[in-house]
Design brief:
The chain has seven helices and four strands; from the N terminus they run βααβααβααβα. By secondary structure, the protein is of the alpha+beta class. It has one domain: 2-Layer Sandwich (Alpha-Beta Plaits), CATH 3.30.70.141. The relative contact order is 0.24. Bound molecules: cytidine-5'-diphosphate and magnesium ion. The site of cytidine-5'-diphosphate has 10 residues, from helix 4.
Length: 153
């Protein structure tokens, strides 16, 4: 079982799309095991986006991601890092495939509504930035027998 960090970015909150985007992950049968609303500080933004800090466009990304509260969550499931990246779609909403979150709701390279970890190392690192271990609540959904076969774990 894998875990990934998902952020519903400030544009998602401001546009009142949190419920609709959150529902997609629930509908898929994924397990949300941690959830909070917070305002990202410039320091937190620099940690989370460490790989982008030196880029020319980073200051505008920081202004965007710190510009209002966002929803952070940890999502759990089989192969969930890849599955969620595919559900989120290409970075630029103009290029993202219809049916993905960005393809359906974003027309921007920056304001693309969702962040999702891109690999196991970044998922572990990013989850650690946003959540303490005791804020993550693993549980077995009671409908688990109707989500997948016993031998698919
Ligand atoms: O989020 P993703 O992994 O798809 O893209 P990224 O290349 O890691 O970039 C991180 C975030 O920076 C994007 O999701 C955009 O919100 C933002 N960005 C930007 O503001 N300007 C760019 N030229 C590229 C990305
Ligand atoms: Mg990225």
């Amino acid at each position: 079982m894998e875990r990934t960090l998902v952020l519903l970015k400030p544009d998602c909150v401001q546009r009142r799309l949190v419920g609709r985007v959150f529902s997609r992950f629930e509908d898929k049968g994924l397990n949300v095991v941690a959830l909070k609303l917070l305002r990202v500080t410039p320091e937190l933004a620099k940690r989370h986006y460490a790989e982008h800090v030196a880029k020319g466009w980073y200051p505008t990304l920081e202004a965007f991601i710190t510009g209002g509260p966002l929803v952070a969550m940890v999502v759990e499931g089989l192969d969930v890092i890849r599955v969620v990246r595919e559900m989120v779609g290409a970075t630029n909403g103009l290029n993202a495939t219809p049916g993905t979150v960005r393809g359906d709701f974003s027309s921007s390279r920056q304001m693309n509504l969702v962040h999702a970890s891109d690999g196991p190392e970044s998922a572990a690192r990013e989850i650690g930035i946003f959540f303490q271990p005791d804020e993550i609540h693993a549980y077995e959904p009671t409908i688990r027998p109707w989500l997948r076969a016993e031998d698919e774990n």
